[in-house]
Amino acid sequence: RSNELWGGRFARGPAEIMERINASIGFDRRLWSQDIAGSQAHARMLAAQGIIPAADADAIVAGLEQVAAEIREGRFTFSTALEDIHMNVEARLKELIGEPAGRLHTARSRNDQVATDFKLWVRDALDRLDGDLRALQAALIDRAEEYAGTVMPGFTHLQTAQPVTFGHHLLAYVEMLGRDRGRVRDARVRLNECPLGSAALAGTPYPIDRAMTAAALGFDRPTANSLDAVSDRDFALEYLSAGAICGVHLSRLAEEIVLWCTSQFRFIRLTDAFTTGSSIMPQKRNPDAAELVRGKAGRVIGSLNALLVMMKGLPLAYSKDMQEDKEPVFEAEETLSLCLAAMTGMVRDLTADPAAMRRAVEAGFPTATDLADWLVRRLGMPFREAHHVTGRIVKAAEERGCGLSDLPLEALQAVEPRITADIFPVLSVEASVASRTSPGGTAPDLVRRAAQAARERFL
Ligand code: ARG
């Protein structure tokens, strides 16, 4: 049996394997509500322009409403022979309303139809991503406020560098996620032009009103070039790029959570709700959710790569390769929403162990820079020289197996005779963080204000 929709020039149906490789209904059925909204807007416009009778448009709109209800309620039978969501919906419409259904595809092609559907879907996905990112920011800001004064080691090279506060560390991620949201917003603005009416590739001779369908579907305007409109998938690439970068941010935080949960660090603890045990080692509490967020970020990067590589060699306009655009996007969307929800859950679940953070921060001479700064400010020493002197003091502390502030004054003076006892206050980690008052710095008061400002900027 040849195809109902283009059977005219075909004597027989496709090979079974042809049907299988060709069909996208297995995944593009997710576009059903966008497809129906697009078709309703199109039918109304056709009638308003006198291209089809108003009664037919009414029948089409009402019939599509019925199709929507069937799909929503799980009563719809999707058919692989009908290839994709567009033909599945149209074929069912024909069963329901008969002849007027045949007028729906006037002045339209599946090429502008699928581009429109997919843009509508990605637009919703961008909005969901923005909301999920916002929820994670809210969790991080809450916790940052709570831990604004909790001192922990800040690292470079994963070696203790200078003391920072846990709140400051958490707010670093709020900034990253804020830029992720900025990318989402930018992508949405660029995406929001309507391809409908570009038809197969060249436009159409019918007197259509593209502004009307664009407005009905919430687009800012119609696309300017019909060839571009049916060939463009950079809106999906932008979604995936923003998603991949976000995935990298989530993965870095996940990695830190994994690290912080180790018995070597013990900076934080996750409750039973966000850990798993081992089937053999009874002592274990594994941060699986964090590991999975870290692992799954790779998938989003993979989706971006898949779509980039798929698009890069395609001549204008539509090629069937482009049917492969959807699965990576759907997959990335599921992964991102799962990972963001899990991360939000973990951030709300974790408790810090300030004592463990303190033990760790004291171990690595984290206030060596503060000591050097004291030499500069009090003795007028050039910083390079102060660095040198401090290095010798650190060496002395290392030899005695103590921290900088535990060194007797004589030991300090043995290295630099001009050092006086009022150096000691700057050697505490509290004094160190409190002194970091330059804008964007880690001083607890600043962190409290930064959390408040982040609330106003982002939530
Ligand atoms: N299922 C197709 C896709 O997802 C719809 C467009 C088909 N167009 C075509 N000329 N065969 O891309």
Percent helix: 55-70%
Uncertain parts: none
The sequence of SSEs as H and E is HHHHHHEEHEHEHHEHHEHHHHHH
Biggest sheet descriptor: 2 strands, antiparallel
Number of helices: 18
* Strand order within the widest beta sheet: 1-2
Shape: elongated
Strand content: under 5%
Unique bound compounds: arginine
Q: Write down the overall mean pLDDT.
A: 96
Structural class: mainly alpha
Cα radius of gyration in angstroms: 31 Å
Distance between the termini: 57 Å
Record field, number of beta strands: 6
Task: Tell me what you see in this structure.
The chain is mostly helical. A hairpin with a 2-residue loop joins strand 1 (151-156) and strand 2 (159-165). It is elongated and about 100 Å long. The model has no long low-confidence stretch (mean pLDDT 96). Helices cover 61% and strands 5% of the residues. It has 18 helices and six strands. The strands form three sheets. The protein has a two-stranded antiparallel sheet with strand order 1-2. It has a two-stranded parallel sheet with strand order 3-4. The chain has helices spanning 16-22, 25-28, 32-48, 54-72, 85-97, 110-146, 166-191, 210-216, 226-231, 234-261, 288-311, 326-349, 354-363, 368-379, 383-400, 409-415, 429-435, 444-458; strands at 151-156, 159-165, 193-194, 221-222, 268-269, 351-352. The protein binds arginine. Arginine binds next to helix 6.
